[in-house]
Write a structure and sequence with these properties.
3 helices; elongated
């Protein structure tokens, strides 16, 4: 399982997230992206506490794709410093994990 990850990416809204999700799934950098609406992010940015609405993308992919995924998201993302964090998948339903591996076996295009 150590070769599979879930990448967390926040975005300012669902439209930006959907555009990025479509791009990375079409290219084979991810097998699936879930977009979760209406999260509230409280963080420090440039010395100020910010309190903003965002959406959260849950990206399922291979660890080996992380650098290419990060590069592509940084090209598409409107934020100067986007959140792009990978967490390992340590267990899961083998049928789903097999599908994830198959869909990310090579970049699609």
């Amino acid at each position: 399982m150590a070769d599979l990850v879930v990448v967390l990416i926040t975005a300012p809204n669902e439209d930006h997230a959907a555009k990025m999700a479509n791009d990375i799934v079409a290219s084979g950098l991810a097998a699936c992206v879930n977009i979760i609406r209406n999260i509230r992010s409280i963080y420090r940015w440039q010395g100020k506490i910010e309190d903003e609405g965002e959406v959260l993308m849950l990206v399922k992919t291979r660890k080996e794709h992380f650098k290419d995924l990060e590069k592509r998201i940084r090209e598409l993302h409107p934020y100067t410093v986007p959140e792009i964090i990978a967490l390992p998948i340590i267990e899961g339903f083998e049928g789903y994990l097999g599908w994830l591996k198959e869909e990310t076996a090579k970049e699609q295009g």
